[in-house]
Amino acid sequence: MRRLPVHGAFAALALVLGLIAAAQAWRLEQALRVAQETGQARAPGAARPDSEPARLAYALALGRDNYDAGATALKELTTAADAQVRRDALYDLANLHLRAALRNGAEEAVRSLPMIELAKQNYRQVLHEDPDDWDARYNLERALWLAPEFDIGADDIERPNGPRERAATTMQSSQGDLP
Asked: Which domains does the chain have, with CATH numbers?
């Protein structure tokens, strides 16, 4: 009598583990197919693949040799259905812009500035979708070091009659501590 429930529990456990193994085998098959497409997409002169991860690899391969073709292919993927592919495409597009700006050098700073601004915009879009992406944060900081942004408000503009006085800074024995 005690054997029947133990055998039933064992059979249920074996069935559940068999289903998990089948699902993992299906995922492995998909991953191998995408890896094969990705490997073919990275080859020079390869045809454009169908799946989005393989198209991302294809766009990166294009971007290594041709900035314009790589940027166009990555821009197409910024509207991808898969959120991870979309974030990766935005990140890689920003990296492409930043590398192109750094390649131009200081002598062509006027030409580099729009590419740095595009890179900053794309890094911010990545961070909007995934605030925990530390690679995008770091690269955005590097881009901000190259082209800092300054907030100029109405108070910072010098008035015709001289700068406006601020009461907290001109009072005697005023301390700058918060309450």
From this structure: 12-149 (1.25.40.10)
